[in-house]
Amino acid sequence: MKFKVLFIAGLLCAIIVQSCKKENLAVVSKEQEDLSNVKAALIKLGFDTATAIIKGEDIFVEEDILLKRSELFKTQPRQAVIRPNSIGALGYLLRSFTYFIANSLTHHRDVLSGISEIRNVMPNRVTMTRVYTEAGADLVFRGYNESSTICGFASWPTMNWGIATIELVVGESVNINLFQWRNLNASQRRTLIAHEIGHAIGIRHTNWRQYGEGEFFSITNRDGSPITYGAYTVPNTNNTSLNPDPSSIFNGNSCGRSWGSGFTVGDRLAIRYVSTNIFNP
Ligand SMILES: [Zn+2]
């Protein structure tokens, strides 16, 4: 009798252990599947997966561009944006947005001067309106403190596919590392803010090739639909070499750069490109 009980107990244990193992295996393979989906999406966007940092919902690419895992498939912009700025007769357009400068960030005057540099290049159609509550803001400027050489990072925009238009929706935050920020001068701060806003409206690093990333190309699916991969060069800019525009404000790894003569011709083309289309010049 005792033996029988022990035997049944042992059998039960074996079944439980076995089913636990199976569950673990299932969890692991689900995670691996998610990870490989994320990597495939990054490759399509033209980002390097070897240097990407994936932390749960947050995915950092090119060092200071933040993608959200749950929004990855709504994130189409490539170098300046999406693909060529037309889909049939449609292009995409940057939606006007509001912004809030949180108290966690200091030197608001320098933040505003970086914002106005971007604003001055954009068409009047796009408005950037300051609001004084975080809840009412599309884009939030925040400070954080981390002992690192990274000056800050910004969220990548998402695409809102409407019936008649495709909107580019500004990324939700620009995050500035106070550890670096407090030692920068006004000119360096203005440059950093303009650089990070660039990411939030879909401009990636001008020197993306130095990150080992592939160039834009398009293939056709079996069902005839196109699939596009890689980084997209802003029309009428040179992006054939590793560092095609050394003075570009949007070059990566440029923490501490001064404003100098400001945006290059290529930078201006990129800002115009994300905020206009052929119907809304
Ligand atoms: Zn950057």
From TrEMBL:
UniProt GO MF annotations: metallopeptidase activity
Coiled coil: none
SUPFAM superfamilies: Metalloproteases ('zincins'), catalytic domain (SSF55486)
Record keywords: Hydrolase, Metalloprotease, Protease
Signal peptide location: none
Pfam families per record: Peptidase_M57 (PF12388)
Protein name: M57 family metalloprotease
